[in-house]
Design a protein that fits this description.
mainly alpha, membrane, 2 domains, MetI-like_sf, about 0% strand, transmembrane helix
């Protein structure tokens, strides 16, 4: 009888947890659903619907047609795509190499260097804006894409995440390869790199989202309208029109997040694997 009662209590607690999580998930999705709803509302360009509705009265593709009729959105997409792809390639590669070096490497000052890398996580972007601006200004790289993806070479969080992941992989793999005469780069690319799928996918998603949504740094270094990224284009559009074209603004915002959603849907399963294997979730 006591066992049956425990089973009922356990089942009831799980049901309550699921219901609470569903409610929380729905509440988190409401702003996104409302954004899409306003994007499909033609009358929202005249007056925002009140009270807010999750399903528009007059669904129409009008706002989305206007968004794509303007060629500037394609330029902004291309600019953001170039910057984001370069940032992902540079950031993920450097993080994997750095994490491997700090995890499996044996060299003097390794602990001190790792502490310095972790120390960069405590410095927010705002104090670094002026020094970085001055540095790229002296290099003559302002108003180009270089300042937007070169900082991805040093990613303290990515290096830390990769180190935690490589710590879980056995050292015997490296020792066996060394006995066979393999170099360090050979060991990394032939032995360990094929095992980094989960953590690499996680870094791709995190770096992609960070680079795609970056606003302040591109605003500082880019002045040419033809080099605007998606966040800059969305901000300039909003600044010019205010709330007078709410439907068009929301349609533009919806279009801007599509690449992030697609990427996350394809790679989301790797995030759980990497968290489990990196020791961040015990």
């Amino acid at each position: 009888m006591a066992v049956l009662t425990q089973k009922k209590t356990f089942y009831l607690s799980n049901v309550i947890k699921v219901i609470v999580l569903l409610i929380c998930g729905f509440l988190l999705m409401v702003p996104f659903i409302w954004m899409i709803s306003i994007g499909f509302s033609k009358t929202a360009n005249v007056q925002m619907p009140f009270p807010p509705r999750l399903i528009p009265k007059d669904p129409s593709w009008f706002n989305f047609k206007l968004v794509f009729e303007n060629g500037q959105i394609f330029k902004a997409y291309l600019n953001s795509g170039i910057i984001t792809v370069c940032s992902v390639l540079i950031g993920v590669t450097s993080s994997l190499l750095g994490g491997y070096a700090f995890s499996k490497g044996t060299f003097k000052g390794k602990k001190l260097m790792f502490i310095i890398v972790l120390g960069t996580l405590m410095i927010p972007m705002e104090p670094r804006l002026i020094p970085m601006y001055e540095m790229f200004n002296k290099l003559g790289m302002l108003n180009t894409f270089w300042p937007l993806f070169l900082p991805a070479l040093v990613n303290g969080f990515g290096i830390f995440l990769c180190k935690q992941y490589f710590d879980r992989l056995p050292d015997s793999l490296r020792e066996s390869a060394q006995i066979d005469g393999a170099s360090e780069l050979g060991i990394f690319f032939k032995i360990y790199f094929p095992l980094t799928g989960p953590i690499a996918a996680t870094l791709v998603i995190l770096t992609f989202i960070s680079s795609w949504n970056d606003f302040v740094w591109p605003l500082v270094v880019l002045n040419d309208p033809n080099l605007q990224t998606i966040p800059l284009y969305l901000a300039s559009f909003t600044q010019e029109n205010g709330t007078s074209l709410g439907g068009l603004t929301m349609a533009l915002a919806t279009v801007s997040v599509i690449p992030i959603i697609i990427l996350y849907l394809f790679l989301q399963r790797f995030i759980i694997q990497s968290i489990a294997l990196s020791g961040l979730k015990e």
